[in-house]
Amino acid sequence: MKFQGKYPNTRLRRGRSEDWIRRLISENNLSVDDLIMPIFICEGRNKIEKIHSMPGIYRYSIDKLGSAIKRIEKLKIPLVALFPYVSSNKKDNFGSEALNENNLICKALRAIKNNFKIGVMCDVALDPFTNHGHDGILKNNYVLNDETIRVLIQQALLYAKNGCDIIAPSDMMDGRIGLIRKSLEKNKFINTKILSYAVKYASNFYGPFRDAVGTKQLLKNDKKTYQMDFRNSEEALREVSLDIKEGADFVMVKPGMIYLDVIKKIKDNFKIPVFAYQVSGEYSLIKLGIKNKILNNDSIKESLISFKRAGASAIVTYFAEEIANQLKKN
Ligand code: PBG
C-alpha cells in the first residue's frame, strides 16, 4: 500500500462523521439484484407449513406457490432456488423419484415457468429422494461416484425440459459438470446455465435445511467422503478449476460466512462469477439472535455485505425476501 498521511493531516474519522459522507464513500453495497431466495415445496394442497428450526421460512404446496412467487417477483428478486420435501413412501436407495416427471420439482417448475418471468434454479443431487439422505447411490456405506452421475445427468435434463434456468449440481461427485454439460448441449439446451456447487464443505451448518427437506432423521453417518474437508482451502481452487474446464458458468461456495476467505481466494485466482450460499444454520443463528434480542436487525445486512466485500456476485439467502423488503423501504 502507498504512503498514508499522518495524524492530524489524516483523520480517517472525517470520512465517517455524517451519514451522507459514509454513503458517498462506501465501497460495497447490497442490492436486490444480489439476492437468490430458496423456496421449500411440499406435497398436498393448501399447505403453508412452518419449519421448526427456521423461523420465518415455510414449505408451500404447489397450489400455494404462486402467491409466494408473485411476492418475490414483485420485489424484483431475480432468482429462486427450489427444494422439495418428498414424502418418505417415495424414497428409495436410488432416489428414483428424482427422475419422475411429476415429482415436486417438475410440477413446481411448470407452475412457475408458465406464469412468471423470474429465474428458477434447481439443485441436482439425490438427497431429497433417497431413503438414506445421501446425495447419491449408496453401496456398502459408500456413495458411488460414476453410477450416481448417470442419474444426475438424467435429473438435470428432466429439470431443463421442465423449464429450469439454472442447473445447480450440489452433490460433489467428481466429473459430473462435464457430463451434465455434454448432455445439455446434445439436447440443445444451449442456454441452460450450470451453477456448480464447486466448493461445498461437509459442514455442521446444514442442520436446519435437512430438517426443512426431511432428510435429517434419515441421514446415516456424514457426507465427508464427498463434501470438502473444512480444513482445506487450496483444494477449493482445484475444484473450481476443474468445474470451469468442464463447463460451469458460475461457481458456488457453501457455507458462506465462515468461508469468506475461500470466496476471496477464488476471486483472486479466477475471473468467474462466484455465488455464496448463506446456509440454513447461518440463517437460524442470526434469526434466533434477533428474535431473542441478542442481535439487532441490522446484523442481517452486515452479514450479507460481507459476501460482497469478499467478492461474491450473488448470495443465496433465506433472508432474501426480508432484506429486499427493507431495501425497498429505504
Ligand atoms: C443437498 C443440499 C444441502 C443444502 C443444499 N443442498 C444439504 C446437504 O448437503 O446436506 C444445504 C443448504 C442449507 O443448509 O441451507 N444437496
Structure write-up:
- With 330 residues, the protein is α/β, with parallel strands linked by helices.
- The chain has helices at 19-25, 62-74, 104-113, 145-161, 176-186, 207-212, 234-246, 260-269, 280-291, 299-310, 320-329, and strands at residues 35-42, 48-50, 58-61, 79-85, 119-124, 138-139, 142-143, 166-169, 193-200, 250-254, 274-278, 314-317.
- The strands form 2 sheets. The protein has an 8-stranded parallel β-barrel, surrounded by 9 helices.
- It starts with 18 loop residues before the first helix and ends with a helix.
- The protein has 11 helices and 12 strands.
- The chain has one domain (28-329): Alpha-Beta Barrel (TIM Barrel).
- α2 packs across α3.
- The longest helix is centred in the middle third of the chain and has 17 residues, at 145-161.
- The protein binds ligand PBG.
